[in-house]
Every structure is written in structure tokens, then in C-alpha cells.
Model the fold of this input.
Amino acid sequence: MRIVIFTDTYPPEINGVATSCRNLYRTLTEHGEKVMVVTTNPWNEELYEDGDIVRIPGIKLKKLYGYRAAPFFNKEAMRLVHDFRPDVIHSQHDAGVGQFGFIAASRLNLPVVYTFHTMYEDYTYYATKGFMDRAAKGIVRQYIHHKSRTADEFICPSSKIKEYMRSIGIDSYISVIPTGIDFSAFDRRKVNRKLVNEIRRQYGIPTSTYVILSLGRVAKEKSIDICLKGYAKYLSNGPARETLFVVVGGGPALKELKKLVTELRIEDHVLFMGPVNPDSVPLYYQLGNCFVSASITETQGLTFMEAMASSLVLFARYDDTLLGTIKDGENGFFFLDEDDFAAKLPKIVALSGSRLKGIVEAGLSSIEPYSLERFYRNVMEVYRRAVKKGW
Done:
């Protein structure tokens, strides 16, 4: 089958949608499907072709992670899509390139599959700053209703989003397909230990230090501040073991979090590494002993699964999305707030021997539903269904 994926974000950008699109491209091509990706050009203002990847120029959004906002249509990219002769269009986003996907499908009379990745109601504050936010959320809901009517097939990456869709009155058929992950890249036995040790030496992290790791976009909705406040309370109790809270990633909340760390007087116990190359992310997971997150805006929690694949212990704020991923006390742990974080962290740091091994092994066993092979089979079923609707 010949598929064109339209997305406004793609590696080297680091976020869940970019990762999902890259993994979809990889598994489709590895199974012999012909795939083109149309996305933004993060480097300059020219149309750029890199094999099957077509990058459209756009305006740089300095206040939004430096992403590029591409127009709804690009004549040269449209020609390339036409010459590719696709069977189906897959729109993965809702900005310029995502809309371009729907336009291309209409012009070429092709079926369009749409994946709703992001709970936009959780992000309206970026645009409204709290002013008329309720109205903005209403507009978001109207938009989703429109998309559900115009797409031939509708995909959500988790049951949480499907339940949200039903709660706002969407009655279209919805396929729940979690993003597939190449877990082999995160296997502790396969990661280059020499490179991991070089990173440790570069940042002066002793192997005896217990590392509490936060990895991903550093943004307000990720609630990293709750983890840092809980960590400060943990440190105030004078723990016996040496620990270090490591934040890997960049984003608009970085400056604010650094200020918070200073106010909490825990600068000697927190390390901000900034953004890293996506291909080197598995190395940075290996720095950690425990992966922490307080975000409750995740649609499926790709970093949680990557952390489990990296043999880390998960410690996450309770959220319905994670109920199918984390079983409290079996393959990870939940906390409720910063006080609960501080109270439970000592028990996690103290895990050792068979108890620690059992938690890690349970985590490795629970990620099978998110394998690339299952991802491929599920998405191809949706593509075939979409194509049949045009017969």
C-alpha cells in the first residue's frame, strides 16, 4: 500500500507526535509499504526533500518550542504527493501540514485517516492566557466534531481520548491504537555502556548516586514542579543515600524550573541537561534508576513505556491514562501530590534485590501491547477499511 503521512512535527523535533510518526514510518517501510512523510522544515525556509521525507518551509514559532508553522497548502509538495500516487492519506496533526493532508485527500479523491493525538483543551491556556478560556475550549470541541465528520477513519492512541470523544458527543467509529515503540533500542543489554559512562563523566555523576530521571518536554503541563517540590521535601528529611534529580529536555518552562530549584535551595541535587538528540535518548534513560512524571495531560505516555523498556522503576502521578500501563506496586508506583511523592520516594530508592528485579521484569512484560508489530497490524487494518469505503 502507498501511504502519505502529513504531520506538523517530526524528528529531529522531540515530542510524542513526532515519535509516533517516525515509528509509524519505520514499521510501515520495514513491512514493505511505500510511505511518504510531509512535514515542516525546521532548518530553513525552503522545500527540502530527504528521500521519502518532504519538508515544507514555515514561520518559526519562538514561543512554542521553536516549531515551524507551515501553510495549509504547498504547490510543489502537492505535486510530489500527486506523483507518489498514494492509496490513502494519514493526517497526524491539526496545524498547517495536518490541514494540508485533508486538502490533498480532497483534491486527489483519496480516503483520509485522522489520528487525534493531543487533548487540545489542556493546552488552550497557551493561546488565551486564561482570558475567555472556556470559549476557546468550546471552539476546540466544535473543531473535533468537524474532524470526526470529514475523516474516513478516526484513530485515538488511548482509551482516555476515546472516552473524552464520547463525553463531548462524538459518535463516529473510533479505533484505539497505541503508538508502537521499537523497544530494542532501549534494552539495557544492548545500549552502549561506554557512551553512557561518557555522559556520566561529562556531568560528574558517580555510579553510586541514585538518579531520579525526568525526560521529555519541559513545559507547564508536564508539572515537573510538583516532582521537584516533592523531591525537596524528601531531601529535607536527610536521606542516607546520595541522590540526584536529572531533567533531560528543553522547553518554555526551563527557566521557571531553574528558578524554582534555586528557591527550594536544592541546586546541588538537581541537574538540567537540556534537549538531546532523539537518537541518543536511550543512552540518557540508562542514567536513571527511577523515572518520574507528574503530568496528567498525557494521551498514552510514550516516555513511561520507554522507561520500562529501559529497565527503570516508574514513579508517576496518578492518572486514568496510566491504569493500563502502570499497576501500582507491581510494575511501578503512583503518587498523588508532592507530599505523597516525598513519602513514597524513600521506599522506591530502597528497593533492591528480588523486589527491584520483580518490578523491572513486570514492567518489561507489560509493554508488549505497544510493540511495533502490533502497531503495524492495527494501523494497516484501518487503512484497508478506509480504502474499501472508496470502492
Residues 133-150 form the longest helix (18 residues).
